[in-house]
Design a protein that fits this description.
single chain, mainly alpha, two-stranded parallel sheet, 401 residues
């Protein structure tokens, strides 16, 4: 029996709008996957987030912003205050808020890579990047299962990088300030931004003042309620003293050396500064170039990875932006797939330990694998030709498959 006219028309319509249909289907599946994790209770949710929610609710909602609740900065505390106006289980409210940013992050990553690569918007590349970010294990687990907010500040990091590359510097530094407003871990891209300032010489150092001002302004609702004007800065200063451990559930270099925070902390910070300084030296002497999108993104990834490996008191969730960056690089060239695989698999293991008790990631082999991957990544981006062949991108690999 031959295909009917209606079937033919339906298939023709589907082929015409295949990318849009794909995006819609992936979005619906993404919603369902996150809905399935709605009842998972993490330690942070039980011990921190829900008690903060209740304390702010009982303290008068927005009026409660006059005092510090929890150890997150004023901007996220403000978000919690507005969340309290929604009725229902606070765990579901937290997770819904974070998951909304999962989709915004996936959209933002797809938009950035598609636009900067000069490809058709909402085409094949856009659909593939959107889907890859949306279903990255740590992205799903972070918001839908853990109830954490790493997709939020990472979205603003992506916007910072997007506008910095486009040379729309005011927007870039505004978004950098917002990223800092949500999480201090936005500092992981700061060494790159500083290096980019010296490399490109296209914006004034005063631009960093925009980020500081925007960061301060993220506390405006709390200031109106009587909060101290310097509180956003004091909170982060206090956070640096909260976790006195060389590593926390992350394959850090310091697993190999030891967890003596008192004696190793200063050395760790200095070693990280030296390595970032070497990176800056390589850029300024043009041993490491930043002349195209691939070089731009692999340089950001290198600085972030270096900080994660060698700074003290790093947590497993801090690898979130690095995993995103390495995955985006796979869509430029398949040679990055091995690095993305190592980083994402190890990140997933750390999430599994915290959420499901699958075993601690303090095994020295985890740290050795992570260190070797970083060292090889460093060698590759400096020594190898950074030019990308079109047929070696993940997009074209999927196309051929």
């Amino acid at each position: 029996m031959r295909m009917t006219r209606v079937e033919q028309k339906a298939i023709e319509l589907a082929e015409k709008y295949i990318n849009w249909l794909f995006l819609i289907v992936m979005t619906l599946i993404g919603i369902y996957v996150r809905y399935a994790g709605r009842n998972a209770q993490s330690g942070d949710m039980v011990a921190c987030l829900q008690p903060w929610f209740d304390q702010i609710l009982q303290g008068g909602q927005v009026k409660a912003l006059k005092t510090q609740v929890g150890d997150y900065n004023v901007l996220y505390q403000t978000c919690i205050a507005f969340m309290t106006y929604f009725k229902g289980n606070s765990m579901y409210i937290f997770k819904a808020f974070s998951c909304i940013f999962d989709f915004l992050l996936a959209f933002g990553c797809a938009w950035m890579l598609t636009d900067l690569a000069g490809k058709k918007m909402f085409g094949k590349l856009f659909a593939l990047v959107y889907t890859a970010v949306l279903f990255l294990p740590t992205v799903v687990l972070n918001g839908a299962y853990w109830g954490q907010c790493d997709s939020i500040y990472t979205l603003f990091i992506i916007l910072t990088l997007y506008y910095l590359y486009k040379e729309k510097f005011i927007r870039a530094f505004v978004f950098l300030g917002i990223a800092f407003g949500f999480k201090f871990q936005a500092v992981l891209i700061l060494p790159f931004v500083v290096s980019y300032y010296f490399c490109k010489k296209k914006f004034s150092i005063s631009m960093f003042g925009i980020s500081v001002l925007v960061f301060w302004l993220t506390g405006i609702v709390a200031f109106i309620q009587g909060r101290g004007l310097l509180d956003p800065f004091k909170i982060y200063a206090n956070q640096t003293k909260t976790y006195e451990s060389m590593y926390m559930n992350i394959p850090s270099f310091w697993i190999l050396a030891g967890n003596d925070y008192g004696n190793l902390k200063t050395f760790a910070v200095q070693l990280t500064l030296v390595l970032c300084g070497v990176g800056l030296y390589a850029i300024m002497t043009e041993k490491k170039k930043i002349t195209n999108l691939e070089q731009y993104l692999n340089t950001v990834a290198w600085f972030a990875w270096t900080c994660l490996l060698f700074l003290p008191a790093m947590h497993e969730r801090y690898t979130y932006p690095l995993d995103i960056l390495l995955m985006l690089l796979c869509f430029i060239h398949l040679k990055y797939l091995k690095y993305a695989a190592v980083s994402i698999i190890l990140s997933t293991l750390t999430y599994g330990y915290y959420l499901f008790g699958n075993g601690a990631i303090d095994n020295k082999w985890h740290a050795i694998i992570y260190l070797i991957a970083w060292a090889h990544f460093t060698y590759m981006i400096v020594k190898q030709d950074s030019g990308c062949e079109g047929e070696t991108s993940l997009e074209d690999f999927v196309k051929k498959a």
